[in-house]
Design goal:
Elements (H helix, E strand, L loop, with lengths): L7 H12 L26 H12 L2 H4 L1 H6 L3 H33 L6 H10 L12 H36 L5 H15 L5 H28 L16 H12 L2 H9 L13 H24 L16 H34 L9 H22 L3 H28 L7 H36 L1
Length: about 450
């Protein structure tokens, strides 16, 4: 393999030399286990990993599920949320397994998503190999856009709910941008936490707040349920891509999944039928289906961007749940913001600062800039539901569905690519591309319509 290939050959050589004579790493691919050679500075336990996965997925997306069902209909929403959840989980397994095989081949402990994509394409079908050198940049662009999109959605969610409560309490009607400005410094501080181990206690607190808030959410849902026959079971085909984008955004946390799997103390526990990933995703999908179904049944066509915005503004429990869930989302910002900063810093910036004595200072500058970008984006287009659907459709259709399928084709190309495997992965690629194009088109059309109304 050429040295320009992300320096993978020297990297493998380095670890083999460190292993020493007689090491399993030198005895052949079948004896090298990448998991045994990982050296994460602050590895997380299985429980901490599951907490991060739950918190990474149980964000603003779950509160937008009634709005998602509004774009699909009650029965469509129920069925397709489960289907999308299954596809997301399966594709995450495909991605993690492909990365493991590639690490085993070149004898390195771990590879990033962009490195894995490049190496896979280099060893895949000849028609795909010319794209290998460009693939890391493409993957990084999608990852950074997606994670900054999540951060933008979190800023909008916290600001909108805070405005809802404060305007009711004070009788004022301050601009949403004023509340964003108030929140800027706290968000910068939470994004300044530099490793996942330190974020784990905050994630535990956020999970406790989230599950406690669900009690109040269910109280308002069941308070006055209308006849279920009043709720549309199906919606129009034009609106379905909005449902797809929102649900994909809510369920798929590919950036967090890769980060936490690479940082696990026992990464072998991540996969498998009863592994950390499956257990987490079963809980997540059940919660999403349940809240989407019940929330849309309760509020129907009046379902707001976030179900909390449907609650009576004057009620104390409604104010409490808005503030508590906003606190949970604020805490989660640190986990979501960790990923784009890590990508930009480790891949593109730190190599230019090797001789600098101010590396830590520049890393904090990058963290501050990332927060400011998410705030500027939120202030420019303050459309919470459409932002959720847009980033879900555009980024996750590629990152979470199409790219893992391409990687599996390439990884199995040399010896294990059966006709069934190829057909399955081609179907996933087509599904991802259709979701990307149709979802992005619908979201951008709706954003243009809403912005034109505002002007």
């Amino acid at each position: 393999m050429a040295k320009e290939s992300l320096k993978l050959e020297p990297l493998g050589k380095k670890y083999n030399e460190e292993a020493g004579p007689g090491s399993p790493a030198l005895a052949g691919d079948e004896f090298y286990d990448p998991h045994l050679h990982r050296n994460a500075p602050a590895p997380t336990t299985n429980t901490e990993t599951m907490i991060h996965l739950l918190k990474g997925s149980l964000g603003t997306g779950i509160l937008a599920m009634p709005y998602a069902f509004k774009n699909s209909g009650l029965i469509n929403g129920f069925v397709f949320t489960i289907i999308i959840g299954f596809i997301c989980t399966y594709c995450l397994h495909v991605l993690v397994n492909a990365q493991y095989v590639l690490c085993k081949r070149i004898k390195v402990p771990m590879l990033t998503y962009p490195e894995s994509m490049k190496l896979a394409l280099e060893t895949g079908p000849p028609c795909l190999r010319p794209f290998a050198k460009y693939s890391p940049y493409l993957v990084d662009v999608f990852l950074v856009l997606y994670q900054l999109g999540i951060c933008c959605v979190y800023v909008l969610f916290v600001a909108k709910n805070l405005k809802d409560v404060c305007d009711e309490l004070t009788g004022s009607d301050l601009s949403l941008n004023i509340y964003m400005l108030i929140l800027l410094i706290p968000f910068i501080l939470i994004n300044s936490i530099r490793n996942l181990k330190l974020l784990a206690p905050f994630s535990i607190l956020a999970n406790i707040i989230t599950f406690a808030s669900f009690g109040v959410v269910l109280y308002y849902i069941f308070e006055d349920l209308p006849p279920i026959s009043n709720v549309p079971t199906f919606s129009t085909l034009y609106k379905f891509p909005l449902f797809f984008g929102t649900t994909l955004f809510a369920l798929e946390a590919v950036g967090v999944v890769i980060a936490v799997e690479n940082n696990m103390k026992t990464p072998k526990s991540f996969g498998g039928y009863c592994g950390v990933l499956n257990m987490s995703m079963v809980v997540i999908v059940l919660l999403y289906v349940g809240l989407g179904f019940l929330g849309y049944w309760r509020y129907g066509e009046n379902s707001a961007d976030s179900i909390t915005l449907n609650f009576p503004k004057e009620d104390i429990p409604a104010k409490a749940v808005k503030l508590l869930y906003s606190l949970a989302i604020f805490i989660s910002y640190g986990l979501q913001g960790y990923v784009p900063v890590q990508i930009m810093w480790d891949t593109y910036i730190v190599k230019h600062l090797e001789n600098s004595s101010h590396q830590l200072l520049w890393e904090y500058v990058l963290r501050i800039i990332a927060v400011i970008i998410s705030f500027v984006l939120a202030a420019t287009i303050p459309l919470l539901a459409l932002f959720i659907a847009l980033f879900g459709s555009f980024c996750l259709s590629a990152l979470g569905i199409a790219f893992p399928a391409i990687m599996e084709i390439c990884v199995n190309y040399s010896d294990k690519l059966s006709g069934l495997n190829l057909t399955k992965n081609v179907a996933l690629i087509i599904f991802g591309l259709v979701g990307l194009l149709a979802g992005s088109y619908s979201c951008l059309s709706e954003i243009i319509i809403e912005l034109s109304k505002g002007s």
